[in-house]
Specification:
alpha+beta; 2 domains; two-stranded antiparallel sheet; 1 helix; 20% strand
């Protein structure tokens, strides 16, 4: 029986270290703790250009999520 091979990568959103199957390298994965999405990349494959290029999309995603949370909080307070 073959066993999967895993590597460890920190979540760029919450910082927790995740165990990721090598079969997912280069694919978008989601942190099981915070739900943050990111590319599964080994340290040797990471390029600063690739991470920098993803930042504008991540910032937009976080701003939308923050606005939604504020709206839910306002509705919950009757405002």
């Amino acid at each position: 029986m073959l066993r999967s091979v895993y590597y460890h990568q920190p979540c760029p959103v919450c910082g927790r270290t995740l165990q990721i199957s090598v079969e997912l390298l280069g694919k978008r994965v989601y942190c099981q703790h915070c739900g943050g999405g990111f590319l599964a990349l080994d340290d040797t494959l990471r390029a600063s250009d690739a991470r920098t290029a993803a930042l504008p999309g991540k910032v937009d995603e976080l701003l939308v999520r923050a606005a939604e949370a504020l709206e839910r909080a306002a509705v919950g307070q009757g405002g």
